[in-house]
UniProtKB/TrEMBL annotation:
<dbReference type="InterPro" id="IPR029058">
    <property type="entry name" value="AB_hydrolase_fold"/>
</dbReference>
<keyword id="KW-0378">Hydrolase</keyword>
<dbReference type="GO" id="GO:0006508">
    <property type="term" value="P:proteolysis"/>
</dbReference>
<dbReference type="InterPro" id="IPR001563">
    <property type="entry name" value="Peptidase_S10"/>
</dbReference>
<keyword id="KW-0732">Signal</keyword>
<dbReference type="GO" id="GO:0004185">
    <property type="term" value="F:serine-type carboxypeptidase activity"/>
</dbReference>
<protein>
    <submittedName>
        <fullName>Carboxypeptidase</fullName>
    </submittedName>
</protein>
<keyword id="KW-0325">Glycoprotein</keyword>
<keyword id="KW-0645">Protease</keyword>
<keyword id="KW-0121">Carboxypeptidase</keyword>
<dbReference type="Pfam" id="PF00450">
    <property type="entry name" value="Peptidase_S10"/>
</dbReference>
Length: 512
């Protein structure tokens, strides 16, 4: 039986610190206040400052871990102390730890932009996870179960929903969306919010880590430097799950070529490679493709129309060997195969498309003809599984009461992508902070944020090779959300656990 513990702060428009969770049982939590907005009585919004706390326990690696979880909203403030938005969060704190000064805090974001933190909260690192099969496909009846691989045994976790994701909303419809919707605006206001969170929950002494998935990697890479420069908050680690390009320039031949190793991984999974490659294990086969990509394909694409015909034919033959596509198709596309064309073409003869975010998933289009899939099969499967689970979890299990729609993917357009230098921001943060380590996790079957582009990020961030000892990468046999595979859920969480513990320096000083 789960014991329930409540803290509720029914304040909407002004600032007050919440009382820390007390270890007592509340029979029925008082729900957060539903606040009507404007003249339309049917419009509701989140109370900007509210929370409800419950208690629970989970067994992780054979150990019982008791914890409290607070679901709530905390304001974002402007320079004049006026609330701009309410940012929804769920905060998991291990309850049998007396000294939080040495207890790591992980601040978790998902991507989009426009995505809530649902994916990693109930799919990856949290103590509760949705019911799916061993490969990540939805099953019914919907529901949740304990996550025996959660990192809550070694770190407390707060999952953050940026504005217009989850239950987070602007404080007023008159507030310009430019305050939130852009690479640098997003980083700026979330850094301020993190300061408020860390102050309220007394986590300034704790070792701190950021984890982001997909666009969340752009976010946390920028936050690493913004927290140092504007909030005077220094991190121990940044974890990039399925990272974006981080604003690192790769236009032209490099951009086109770097997808080939991902094509090879996907073709291997669907058994479309020649017998000699297909007989090798995935990770034994890929180095050959990676070497060809860097040493032959990029130089060939750079030559463009000046490439001799015999060389063009030879390059196309090798690309066909590694991608599962026909040599003719590759030549018809001038050696430049866009991912969307690959997703449509690879299994066209069988009447299927392959997924964008996870190419193990198959889709069915209206017509076999065409240049890109009608839809992305993996996202449909994931929304199918996650949406009922998160609504059941927050509203029923955590007892957060609101009539707001939970935005799995919220309206955040237009998004200002100018001046994205987040990869360089992360490098600067590492250079300035000798304690800061970076760990990258990639799925081999991710076609949106592919594994070889993630490796390229690390090469270009650390062109001088001076940070190699604090940069690490790991690959998994899933897609964008590699942790949905039962096998990878265990290994990827264990890698996180090891990274977090390794990045805490003990009594060592921060110096070169």
């Amino acid at each position: 039986m789960r014991k329930k513990l409540l803290i509720f702060i029914p304040l909407t428009f002004f600032f007050i610190y919440p009382i820390r969770a007390q270890k007592k049982t509340a029979t029925e939590p008082t729900p957060p206040k539903v606040v009507k907005q404007g003249e339309n009585a049917n419009t509701v919004r989140l109370a900007l400052d509210s929370s409800v706390t419950t208690s629970n326990a989970v067994t992780i690696k054979g150990q019982r871990v008791p914890y409290t979880v607070t679901a709530g909203s905390m304001p974002v403030w402007d320079e004049n102390g006026k609330p701009l938005a309410g940012v929804f969060y769920t905060y998991y704190e291990r309850s049998d730890v007396k000294d939080l000064s040495t207890r790591p805090l992980v601040i978790s974001f998902n991507g989009g932009p426009g995505s809530s933190s649902v994916w990693m909260e109930i799919g990856y690192t949290g103590p509760r996870m949705l019911k799916i099969d061993d490969e990540g496909y939805p099953i019914q009846p919907y529901g949740l179960r304990d996550n025996p691989h959660s990192i809550l045994d070694v770190a407390d976790i707060v999952y953050v929903d940026p504005v217009n994701t989850g239950f987070s909303r602007p404080a007023d419809k008159e507030i310009p969306t430019t305050a939130f919707f852009g690479v640098n605006a997003d980083i700026k206001y979330l850094a301020g919010w993190i300061n408020t969170f860390v102050s309220r929950y007394k986590r300034w002494p704790s070792p701190k880590f950021l984890i982001g998935e997909s666009y969340g990697t752009t976010r946390v890479s920028g936050l690493a430097l913004e927290l140092q420069n504007s909030q005077w908050m220094y991190l121990n680690g940044v974890i990039l799950v399925s990272p974006t390009g981080l604003g690192i320039d790769r236009k032209g031949p490099v951009d086109v070529a770097l997808s080939l190793p991902y094509f090879a991984a996907t073709a291997w999974f669907h058994k479309k490679l020649p017998a000699d490659l297909q007989s090798k294990d995935l990770t034994a086969m890929l180095p050959e493709v990676e070497a060809f990509t860097v040493n032959e394909l990029i130089p060939a694409l750079a030559k463009g129309g000046s490439l001799p015909e015999a060389d063009r034919t030879a390059i196309a033959a090798k690309m066909a060997r590694y991608s599962g596509l026909s040599q003719q198709f590759i030549l018809q596309n001038n050696l430049e195969i866009l991912p969307a064309a690959f997703w449509k073409e690879l299994l066209r003869d069988k009447g299927f498309t392959v997924g964008r975010l996870d190419s193990r998933y198959l889709g069915i289009d209206r017509k076999d003809a065409g240049t890109e899939p009608d839809y992305y099969a993996e996202l449909s499967h994931w929304l199918h599984a996650f949406t009922p689970a998160i609504n059941m979890y927050l509203r029923d299990e955590l007892r957060y009461k609101t009539d707001l729609k939970y935005y799995m993917l919220g309206p955040v357009s237009p998004w200002d992508r100018t001046n994205d230098h987040t990869g360089e921001n992360l490098r600067q943060a590492m250079a300035q902070n000798p304690f800061l380590h970076v760990f990258v996790q990639s799925g081999y079957y991710d076609g949106a944020c592919d594994y070889f582009n993630a490796k390229y990020n690390l090469w270009q961030m650390d062109a001088a090779g001076k940070l190699k000892g604090r940069l690490s990468w790991e690959g998994y046999r899933g897609g964008h959300m590699m942790y949905l595979r039962k096998e990878d859920l265990a290994t990827s969480n264990q890698h996180l656990r090891e990274f977090i513990l390794k990045a805490i320096p003990g009594d060592k000083p921060a110096k070169y």
